[in-house]
Q: What sequence folds into this?
């Protein structure tokens, strides 16, 4: 860490006297606060408008997902993972299905892999669109919210046509897919790609050179690449701090190695860079979708998987690049139909830990911007 | 790397591979020294996850698991150690700052104490909750009724 004291726990009982002989102020934000994207409580210690430190209080949405997993069969637990990061349910499902497939030593057939990649990348765009809309709204730009929600709707329509659900999709099954792509799936995806490309330019027109946006995001919530690694921060936040790392490239899963795409990085590690990185990521996702939809092979969509799954004794850790960072599943099998232990390594939970460091020395209003830029989903933080 | 560590620590570590993933079973006494060596000398600079598994029938009931990743080597490794109920283990917060919340969660869910952790308290469950839910002997049907009655004003959590 740059400053070893930076993450020492706060002493909330005895606020220091400041130089003007006024007391430091401890205030509470949340848990019911529109800008915390869920039920997150933050205790702030302030010197005037300046944040001296903060502490997150989480767990309001804790549902015991890991305990539920131990009491369900492998197949029954599959829909539960959608409820963690509910704006990127498809990614959660992909990570879980692939982890269990690894444990069973099966691989989804190529056709299933392609459809999986298309849906996952569509979901990444949807997740980033939702992030952009709400983040901009928090900072005070209202228009992007309407734009992004309008366009995200088109992705949700594709999901609905594919599997009947819009948000918690349960799109994938262990071993492949339950549903064949519907009639006109490829056409819909191609139409969407050509529809959304100019829309992303539109979002950028609203924000990228907007003076208010620049004032509110440049130099706000800076975190260095070194600190990111020490704090385990992954995803766009890590990349915006200049570390070129994406699991899709570093340790390819599904069939990402078949596609060409770039990993965007930033230099400053501030809120603005994270915004730019996510905008480029959306375009790169479109690139992957374009390549994938052109070359979906024919063939089966489900590998040979027994109806009653009993993975051999052992354990596996599998992680994927979810829209928010590294999403890992650590599954221990004891040879029975139920996992002995399912551990979810949620990106939001670990990334949220950096909030304290990123907010120190900033103004109160910037706390909102930093919470937004971390792109957390409390369903995943609390599980 | 494995050979070097093996030479240094002898029978304290057992390197294994399962499904193409490397992991090491190590002696409890080697933590945190081994973790420090892994970060400083073997470049495992990113602590992905810390978690635990409960085996109530075993004498040493808990497995504590560290998932590590090295950016320079692009490699993952898992470190596993066994500890008994009531035993504590050295905190790895001085090695990786990210261990702070991860260890708090392990404490919350399993009741494993980490020595030298700066602020070891519950993280997901409310303070004052009784029991540690991810232990196998935790009754999910007999949750902490007392807490529910006092704080939520309802008969039971079910």
A:
């Amino acid at each position: 860490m740059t400053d070893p004291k930076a993450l020492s726990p706060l002493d909330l009982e005895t606020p220091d006297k400041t130089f003007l002989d006024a007391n430091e102020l401890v205030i509470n934000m949340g848990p019911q606060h529109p800008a915390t994207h869920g039920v997150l409580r933050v205790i702030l210690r302030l010197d005037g408008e300046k944040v001296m430190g903060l502490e997150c209080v989480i767990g309001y949405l804790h549902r015991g997902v890991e305990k539920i997993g131990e009491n369900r069969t492998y197949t029954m637990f599959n829909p539960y993972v959608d409820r963690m990061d509910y704006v990127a349910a498809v990614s959660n499902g992909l990570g879980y299905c692939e982890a269990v497939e690894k444990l069973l030593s099966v691989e989804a057939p190529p056709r299933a892999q392609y459809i999986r990649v298309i849906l996952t990348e569509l979901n990444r765009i949807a997740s980033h669109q939702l992030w952009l809309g709400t983040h901009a709204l928090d900072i005070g730009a209202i228009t992007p919210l309407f734009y992004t929600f309008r366009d995200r709707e088109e992705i949700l329509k594709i999901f609905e046509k594919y599997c009947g659900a819009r948000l918690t999709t349960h799109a994938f099954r262990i071993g492949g897919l339950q549903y064949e792509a519907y009639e006109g799936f490829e056409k819909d995806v191609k139409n969407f790609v050509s529809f959304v490309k100019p829309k992303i330019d539109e979002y950028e027109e609203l924000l990228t050179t907007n003076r208010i946006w620049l004032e509110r995001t440049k130099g706000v919530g800076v975190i260095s690449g070194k600190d990111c690694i020490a704090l385990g921060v992954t995803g766009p936040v890590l990349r915006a701090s200049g570390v070129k790392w994406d699991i899709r490239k570093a340790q390819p899963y599904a069939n990402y190695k078949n596609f060409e795409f770039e990993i965007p990085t930033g230099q400053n590690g501030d809120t603005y860079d994270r915004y730019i990185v996510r905008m480029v990521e959306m375009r790169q996702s479109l690139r992957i979708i374009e390549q994938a939809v052109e070359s979906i092979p024919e063939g089966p969509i489900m590998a040979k998987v027994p109806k009653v799954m009993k993975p051999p004794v052992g354990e596996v850790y599998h992680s994927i690049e979810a829209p928010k960072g590294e999403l890992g599943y650590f599954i221990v099998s004891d040879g029975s139909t139920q996992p002995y232990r399912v551990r979810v390594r949620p990106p939001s939970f670990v990334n949220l830990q950096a909030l304290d460091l990123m907010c120190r020395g900033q103004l109160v209003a910037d706390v909102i911007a930093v919470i937004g830029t971390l792109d957390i989903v409390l369903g995943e933080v609390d599980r | 790397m494995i050979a070097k560590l093996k030479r240094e620590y002898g029978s304290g570590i057992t390197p294994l591979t399962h499904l193409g993933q490397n992991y090491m079973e190590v002696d409890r006494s080697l933590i945190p020294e081994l973790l420090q060596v892994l970060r400083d000398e073997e470049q495992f600079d990113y602590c992905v996850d810390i978690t635990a598994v409960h085996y109530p029938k075993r004498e040493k009931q808990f497995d504590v698991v560290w998932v590590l990743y090295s950016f320079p080597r692009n490699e993952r490794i898992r470190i596993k150690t066994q500890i008994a109920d009531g035993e504590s283990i050295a905190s790895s917060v001085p090695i990786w700052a990210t261990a702070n919340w991860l260890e708090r969660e392990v404490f919350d869910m399993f009741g494993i104490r980490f020595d030298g952790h700066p602020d070891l308290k519950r993280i997901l469950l409310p303070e004052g909750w009784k029991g540690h839910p991810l232990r196998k002997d935790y009754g999910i049907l007999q949750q902490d009724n007392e807490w529910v009655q006092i704080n939520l004003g309802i008969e039971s959590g079910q």
